[in-house]
Amino acid sequence: HTSLPTHRSLPKAPQFGSVEEESSHDLATQRHELLTIVQHLVCLSPKQMRIDYPKRLRDYIEVSQDKFQLTLPVKKAPKISFTLPLPQVDAHWGFAKLLLKLGSDTLMNVLMLLLIERSVLVLGENSTEVTACSCALLELLQPFKWAG
User: How buried is 136 (Cβ within 10 angstroms: 0-12 exposed, 13-18 middle, 19+ buried)?
Assistant: First the structure.
């Protein structure tokens, strides 16, 4: 059980002046204060946390979805709005990395190799990316079942 920060505990929003007037230390302090405010604002309510993906894709398209909306305390900042539930970043990020690193043709070839039960070795310089890409490959195989 994690306690969520309340809006009552928010520090006052920093006022940004012109870049020429501010020292780098002042700008860093203001950035830190703004990030602290954003961190407090970006909290889902308990009701929003319980929202799950619809069971049928058609419901996701046709039914109006709840949204998480946030207005940042910065002049001219656009309103941030996400459809709930929030995407599964780990799976989506791994797939995006796979697609960027391999390209669609190579990714399709890797999937074909996995489907015919060939071994595939995933290598990389960053262990986080290797893990995310490996998990994404497993997720892409999820709909398939081994027949024998």
Answer: buried
Could you write out the DSSP letters of every residue in 58-95? Answer: HHHHHSPPPEEEE--SSTTPPPEEEESSPP-HHHHHHH
Percent of the chain past pLDDT 70, that is, above it, reads 79
Residue 136 Ramachandran class (φ > 0 left, ψ -120 to 50 alpha, else beta): alpha
ω into 46 cis (within 30 of 0): no
Asked if 74 and 92 count as a contact pair (C-beta separation under 8 A), the reply is no
The identity of residue 37, as a single letter, is I
Cβ atoms of residues 133 and 124 within 8 Å: yes
Residues of the chain with pLDDT under 70: 1-22, 57, 60, 87-91, 148
| CA separation, residue 141 to residues 116, 117, 122, 135 (Å) | 11, 11, 15, 10
Tens-digit pLDDT profile for residues 74-110: 788 888 887 787 766 666 788 888 999 999 999 999 9
Q: Are 90 and 132 in contact (CB under 8 A)?
A: yes
The residue type at 73:
P
